[in-house]
Batch of 4 targets.
Target 1
Amino acid sequence: MSAPTTPTGAPLLRVVRGHPDPEELAALTAVLVAAAAATTPEPPPPAPAPRWARPGRATGFRGPRSWRTGPAGDHPPG
């Protein structure tokens, strides 16, 4: 039996030190397979924008003193 390989032909796992028994390799393989199978749940998709929202107010609330600065991006001199 040959060791599993990646699509490039390289082995999936390589023992760098020591001489593991077949039981130790089986335990390591089981842990790696379990870790690969454990997936994190995907975050929920963002909520759709309300259909009643006005497109011109996409920036939302600008602050309690926004009346002093005028339209978005228009700042008073000084």
Target 2
Amino acid sequence: MSFAVIVTFKIHSADMAAFMPLMVKQAKTSLELEPACHVFEIWQHTDDENTVKLYEVYDDADAFKTHLESAHFKEFDQIVAPMIAHKDVTLLNRKIELD
């Protein structure tokens, strides 16, 4: 595991109730169907419930690319696109492994 992704979503407040179950389903599906996806956590900002962060860990960048090309991601992405006011994606390579 050497590749992490942090996604920050700002969700329209009227869409939060619909967004979160879809996000949970996406996380569970990714972990179940993608052997190279090891972590898929959903975090909600303490001061702004409409800000959601994902922390995902994959074997490598190719595994994340496979995730983006998966049918379940494409379906999720299409459904939630109108719910998202803003989205930021940060890609991280681990350079130092701690024992």
Target 3
Amino acid sequence: MENLQQNHNRVSEFVQNSYQKLFSEPDLEGIEPQMPKFQLKSFLAQAIDKNYKVTIQINANNTIYETTGLLTKIAKNRFLLATQGQKVTYLLQIEDIRFVKKTY
């Protein structure tokens, strides 16, 4: 009877752990928190003024992309990000940007 209770407890624990893994949020390594708008504006202005190469995380329909390049301001809260060699150019609004960091 005692063995049956131990087996039941193990099965219950296994099911509970499996359920938690199945429905928990995945570990998001490398995803930075959303920067506040005032901070984004400051960092973007500095990157443009000093012509820094930056890495930007972009919010896009439940997916986060990261790309590196040089920024150009084209209008209020609108930017162009040209990747190295200008193979890809992104048209971004400040609402699209999650995180900015200077790249060396």
Target 4
Amino acid sequence: MKPEYTVEFISLMARFQAARRQDVEGLIRTPTIKKVIGKYCRRIDEQLELFVVDDDWT
């Protein structure tokens, strides 16, 4: 998978509140995916901030 696709996926999940932040963080926590998305960490962190607090997620 191209790193850009992963970043776009996270962006879509955040924009549409289509997942919980903790679930997305779980997807990107593995060493392999961290290596793939390494140079995009700042952008991904910005997208993760857009997720609502888990208590508010329905």
